[in-house]
Design a protein that fits this description.
With 272 residues, the protein is mostly helical. 63% of the residues lie in helices and 0% in strands.
């Protein structure tokens, strides 16, 4: 439950841990109990309640000094650095969180290494390690992707697209399939010249959830086949969906998700 809470609330700008019942974790009056009181007290309206403010960071420093092995404090202090792109400050803190609660935070570190830094090898190492420790590795903070997808993207990033396809083929057959998974499988298959299989995956994506990017790749497939009518139909749909803002985008739209298509690409294909 603690890990799920962390992943859901990471970028909301509120204190993720305000609802954690630390009284169930630690004996009243113990250093860690007092540390939680310091970190999680309601400080709305003050600078210590503003995520990333100097007073807020000092609050976590005080908590860490009292209870240096509680992973959540390091995680909470690390979040503002990640948001600001100060990864060199984020990394040692999140490493501490992983050290003290590996199962709770190594998946998060892996997803973040991919999503923010495109650190493919680091993401693979973290997620593969998590797979050795738990039966179900779970999803990323927003819920848009299962960690299996992040693992597949990372293998693709290091050049092992066939392994990435293998991971996604298995994943789309599971109960954990997400909104975009067939699309990414289709793109990978298209890039490895498995055009018929790519079309099948993209058509399955439309059954799950259609968006502009899917129609763009279907248009590319029909262009390869010199099927003008189907090409025009799909590229027009890609343009229409894009204009209506039905595109590959996540909960936090400032982040570029893998295989995202932009309006310029659609226009280039229309007028080429």
């Amino acid at each position: 439950m603690k890990r799920l809470l962390n992943l859901v609330l990471i970028f909301t700008g509120v204190n993720c841990f305000g609802q954690i019942n630390y009284k169930a974790f630690f004996e009243e009056g113990s250093p860690c109990y007092r540390a939680c009181e310091t970190a999680y007290r309601d400080t709305r309206g003050s600078r210590s309640g503003v995520q990333g403010a100097r007073e807020s960071q000092m609050k976590y420093d005080s908590a860490i000094a009292l209870c240096p092995t509680f992973a959540d404090f390091y995680y909470a202090k690390a979040i503002p650095y990640l948001k600001r792109g100060e990864f060199w400050k984020w990394r040692p803190l999140i490493d501490k969180a992983v050290e003290y609660d590996t199962i709770g935070y190594i998946g998060y570190r892996g997803e973040t290494r991919f999503m923010f830094m495109r650190d493919y090898r680091g993401a693979i190492a973290d997620i593969e390690l998590l797979k050795t420790k738990v039966d179900e590795i779970g999803s990323i903070y927003s819920g848009d992707y299962h960690l299996n997808c992040i693992l597949a993207f990372s293998y693709q990033g290091v050049g092992d697209t066939l392994k990435a396809i293998e991971i996604l083929r298995r994943h789309v057959l599971s109960d954990n399939r997400g909104f975009y998974d067939y699309y990414h499988l289709g793109v990978m298959l298209f890039r490895t010249q498995q055009v018929d299989d790519a079309e099948d995956a993209l058509l399955r994506q439309i059954e799950v959830y259609p968006f502009a990017d899917v129609f763009y790749y279907l248009a590319l497939i029909h262009k390869l086949r010199s099927n003008k009518q189907e090409f025009e139909k799909n590229i027009e749909k890609a343009f229409e969906y894009y204009q209506n803002e039905i595109t590959l985008r996540g909960l936090y739209s400032y982040m570029d998700y893998p295989d995202k298509i932009y309006l310029k690409q659609i226009e280039n294909l229309i007028y080429k």
